[in-house]
Amino acid sequence: MGACAQGKRSHNEASWPGKFILAYVPLCQEKEYYLACACDEIYSPPSAYFSLFGLTVQASFLRGILDNIGIEPQVERIGKYKSAGDQLARRTMSEENCEMLTALLDNIYTNWLDKVSSAKGKSKEDIEKLINEGVYRVDKLKEEGLISNIIYDDEIITMLKERLGVKLDKDLPMVDYRKYSRVRKWTVGISGGGELIAIIRASGSISRVESQLSVSSSGITAEKFIEKIRTVRESKKFKAAIIRIDSPGGDALASDL
After folding, report:
1. The pTM is what?
2. Of the four listed, 29, 150, 217, 229, which is most buried by Cβ atoms within 10 Å?
3. How far apart are CA 107 and CA 111, in angstroms?
4. Residue 126 maps to which CATH number?
5. Distance CA 109, CA 130 (A)
6. Which of residues 178, 206, 232 is at a domain's end?
7. Per-residue pLDDT tens for 194-232?
8. What region holds the Peptidase S49 domain (predicted)?
């Protein structure tokens, strides 16, 4: 959900004066609608499927399977809320883990309600009522003001041509996001300066060393990540560094290193 929130902020930042953002949503759950609410207008086809049922969280436990094949897991833990080993050591969720996940879920859901209700000019109670009723029909969504209109994608193109002054018999100039992401800075008038800021990205679970069984591109390995940081620190061309980490956690010692 954090990545989704970042995407929503990016949409908001793109809403400069004189510009507009449209969302076309044929299939929509909570994350997709959260992102779409950053747009000026939301459109869907008549056959669109919306499943706004609220958020849930679940956990899996393997202790029963391990018992059946004669394996007894031994897990070290510190504190009641350290639940990473529960998947192996328990058959059901502990009270502490349930408390922790419930608090996390409530926080995410409250934020979702706040942002959606604010974007649509409705109260949180109204949005929650629609979710509890189970909204499936797009005509109901339009009636409640959750989407702007019900049209097909070719009608979106026609509408954009009319708004932008493009003749209907001409192609609408469009740029695929993959191509847009490869645009060089100097082609849009952004000149490079002498001082650079390094951006170091890392995602996945954290481990001390790379396992022979792991995919080479998955997770954060302490020894490799440390090497990247040292390379940037010792380089004369970088004046600063931004480290971006997207991780559920992992090895405590590796994280400290």
Report:
1. 0.76
2. 150
3. 6
4. 3.90.226.10
5. 14
6. 178
7. 778 899 998 888 888 776 655 555 688 888 899 999 999
8. 21-166
